[in-house]
Amino acid sequence: MDLGQFILMRQELLLTFAALVVLVAEVFTGEKNKSRIINLTLCLFALVTIIGFIPGETGNLFGGSYQSSQLTVFMKNTLNLAVLIVFLQAESWLRKPENADKISEYFILTLSTLIGMNFMISAGDFLMFYIGLETATIPIAGLAAFDKIKSKSAEAGIKLILSSALSSGILLFGLSMLYGATGTIYFADMTGLVTKDPMILLGFIFFVSGMGFKISLVPFHFWTADVYEGAPINVTSYLSVVSKGAAAFIFSIVLFTVFKNIVELWKPMIYTLAIFTMTLGNLFAIRQDNIKRFLAFSSIAQAGFILLGILGAGELGMTAIVYFVLVYVFTNLGAFGVVAAIHNASGVENISGYNGLYQTNPKLGLLMTISLFSLAGIPPIAGFFGKFFLFTAAAGSGYYILVLIAVLNATISLYYYLLVIKAIFIEKNEQPIPTFRSSNAMRIALVMCITGVFVIGFASGIFEYIRSISKLFLN
Amino acid sequence: MTGFAYTILIPLIPLVMFLVTGLLGMKWKPIVSGILGTIGMGTSFVLSLITAGKYFFGSHLAEGFQTIIPMEISWLRFTETLIIKMGILLDPISVMMLVVITTVSFMVHLYSLGYMKGETGFARFYAFLSLFTFSMLGLVIATNIFQMYIFWELVGVSSFLLIGFYYQKPSAVAASKKAFIVTRFADLGFLIGILILSFVTGTFDFAQLTQPGTTIFGSAASMSFLGISALTWAMTLIFIGGAGKSAMFPLHIWLPDAMEGPTPVSALIHAATMVVAGVFLVARMFPVIHFQAPATQEIIGYVGGFTSLFAAVIAITQYDIKRVLAFSTLSQLGYMMLALGVSGYGGEDGLGYMASMFHLFTHAMFKALLFLGAGSIIHAVHSNNMSDMGGLRKYMPITHATFLIACLTIAGVPFLSGFFSKDEILAAALHHNKLLFAVEFIVAGLTAFYMFRLYFCVFWGKDRHYHHTPHESPLVMTIPLMFLAVASVFAGYLPFAELVTSDKIAFESQMDFAVAIPSVLIGLFGIAMAWLLYKKESALPEKLALKWGVLYTATFNKFYFDEIYLFVTRKIIFNYISRPIAWFDRHIIDGFMVGIGTTTEKVSYRIKGMQSGQLQQYAFMFVAGTLALTLSMLYFLM
Prior knowledge:
The complex is a heterodimer.
Chain A: H1 10-28, H2 36-52, E1 59-61, E2 66-68, H3 70-94, H4 103-121, H5 126-144, H6 151-182, H7 187-193, H8 198-215, H9 223-230, H10 233-257, H11 263-286, H12 291-311, H13 315-346, H14 357-360, H15 362-376, H16 382-396, H17 400-425, H18 440-458, H19 460-474
Antiparallel strand pairs in A: 1-2
Helix pairs in contact in A: 1-2, 1-4, 2-3, 3-4, 3-10, 3-13, 3-18, 4-5, 4-10, 5-6, 5-10, 6-8, 6-9, 8-10, 9-12, 10-12, 10-13, 11-12, 11-17, 12-13, 12-16, 12-17, 13-15, 13-16, 13-18, 13-19, 15-17, 16-17, 16-18
Chain B: H1 9-24, H2 30-57, E1 68-77, E2 83-90, H3 92-115, H4 122-140, H5 145-163, H6 170-201, H7 206-209, E3 224-225, E4 228-229, H8 230-245, H9 254-257, H10 263-272, H11 277-284, H12 286-292, H13 294-315, H14 321-342, H15 351-381, H16 397-411, H17 417-432, H18 434-459, H19 475-490, H20 496-499, H21 513-535, H22 539-547, H23 552-606, H24 615-637
Antiparallel strand pairs in B: 1-2, 3-4
Helix pairs in contact in B: 1-2, 1-4, 2-3, 2-4, 3-4, 3-10, 3-15, 3-19, 4-5, 5-6, 6-8, 8-11, 8-13, 10-15, 12-13, 13-14, 13-18, 14-15, 14-17, 14-18, 15-16, 15-17, 15-19, 16-18, 16-19, 17-18, 17-21, 18-21
């Protein structure tokens, strides 16, 4: 095998290299200079992200175990961008004295999970898929328990590892059934062999349950709220955006390619899951006062919307999902960024603590408002287009009732997003969060988010590009 | 016809003004933002007038007005055929709307220099006004339904900001939220309607959709859902969107509450622009609705008729001056919808369409005048409540005169604009639907009655105990009043039948005296009733006490009549008809909408227990979920 072919997995290699550099830097940096690792990693990762955008060859490796296409490259770049924003937002948090000895841990763990996700997205068989999935999951448990002295954080870690063990077990069981029934683990070979055989169907259902856990679909979502609340904010935002986005990518890839023969069987299933996920996610979100929990449930509802794209099986559905996740990255990280900035400065985590925010920190207040409007899907902000394309994908397959339910849910979600906006602008507060200045890195991250939220909505080229590469991928 | 490329400036100037005053407004003296915004709006206003002059009176083809698209960019290729564009479309109704919006907006900009003086957030207010005007202009010049939807939502957002402008005032905030959410609920219908329509026809463009005799509906007619054709669904859903913005029953509940916003905002949003967006939408889609979805057109007619009656009855009982005007607006919007509902297509059949647009135009002028006049009154007496007002004609001559003109216009007094447009609507209704005609006929009387009830209560009668003597508003506020008063008087003389018609071809419209005479009479009757009941309301008892013995017989008949009338109106109509309807509106319709909200909250509270924090339970739910999926799969296999 020609070593030159390894350029196909350039993104994974770059990430591995970055992780190793951080590891080496950790060894060679003195106790007092640990915070330099932050600057080093930020610069390094920014470079990795930029290099990732350089167009390159695509193709297969390891006899089809690893597949790279323009679409998967785009997905990975989306995730890289998201992680870059998360890192920038984490900067001032990592500089706090209590985290001084854990800086490189944070980066290495996060990078490892990202590498796992990249391999998962590029998987050409279920073995590569599973290895990627586990590589992406296990370090997250460590991240969730990052504030190990806080019992909530420790609880989050243990809850995540235990419930993901269960889900991975079921998922693996499903995969082995699929292998047993078809005699292959390769996606390309299995596509033709998938029939309505009961064993295959059971394997398929187990696969859906396992993925439902990752994307936090109702009723596989229960871990989400506790883990999101317990984990440090910068881990929560990573979980809710990057981890969920990656899972949504691979889920749609596998459904659209491997299981395309039984599409009529899985559509009703996804239909039901979509209704439950959107509705219950929304109903839970209404009552939350903890802003992290609030965003957790709202992100469950958002996951329900992604399923609408899956129902639009095919090119349009794929495009809608990738586009939605791209928008979701900027939108949700914008909201999480504000939450993180406020938490760093004042420790406030409750919505009622946000009362009167606009008086003292108008910029953050506005940014939060725009992010929430985008999440609610108000045009002309990007979030609207993301949702609109998902709705169109579903409507294109004739699911008008579902679209109606989805739009109703979007309206309900507007109600609770407005509750937060109301707190920011209207509610009186004797002691509002004092005026503060966020770190430069945080500012850069927030500017990136706000730019993304507007630019992606207006730059139609992005959608058209995604559509062209989705077409290429699916044909 | 070319040379319309400059029309891009009409919406662009307010957008620039929004960005400039929004971003830099904090650094200047507030008044600078106000003046800048007003100058910008004035420019747009002049440009709109030039456009209208050039479009309507420039050279045009004998077979009617063309649809001109001076500018259009393909913004997004959605599928091979479905392309989202952004552009400018000029046709009679959009040019007319440009004039309406910029006129009223300019007047409101000018007026607010006086009205909002000294308010905190003066610059912010002007930024929002510009944003709103921009969105509204973008809405009317949309070349396709998708562009319209985007601006439609933007209008919703900016009106949310404007209504909630007094954000220290909880009621204003609640109202803005209510307005936003109720209209969003309606918009979901609109969105789904667009999706269905675009999938059925493969296009978003108005030019293709509304071309008569187009073939794009060829295969669509056979598609149906629940026994109703896909196009009827699409059009009805789109109408629901329009009904939300135009506050048609039962989606009207947000409008009266929205009066919590600053009064000039009410004049702009709730009289002339945003609320007519729904009517405009129906007019824009009219050929599709008329030919492809006649059932929807029926619905539109009846919803309009019912709303106009319902709102007129409620208006009689209101004491808040702005609420009276709000219900009056509802009622007049109902008129416009009804006219579209009974209209045919082409030539004289399209009388209803023409009448609706005509009324939209005249109503914009006189209703904006009424709201601005009300603002001037509120400015003087610092109250919204009619019982705090009285005898104001002495103190505020200009406001009084202009307000009177507006009242006469809306009451349909001959030779004022409202008379002409209302007459056309009644004539159109008479030819198509007798029941709706009867409803509108009654509403015409009610309208005259409640408007003059308002007028007499405010300007006549006894002086109240004012904190300080009311005085006329400054010139910057009265100039818009005078301008709009002139417009209200003369707008009726525009030859609408030659300019704005359903098929863009001029037709002869004649005054239908069989309709005009009774409608004028019932209007005058309404005014007379109001005069009897409210002008002398406070004077009557005193006079009677003085002359009881001497002129008993002379006054007897009149007095007797008064008594009966008082009995009928006060005891019967008020207590048994209007009050219950008002109550029904407040508690049942409103309550239902609120109920949806509270139910959601309750359900949300109930299911909270599911999220217990117990890992075992989570695992159990996980396995149960998998099992449920398996069972459902088994079900589907069977």
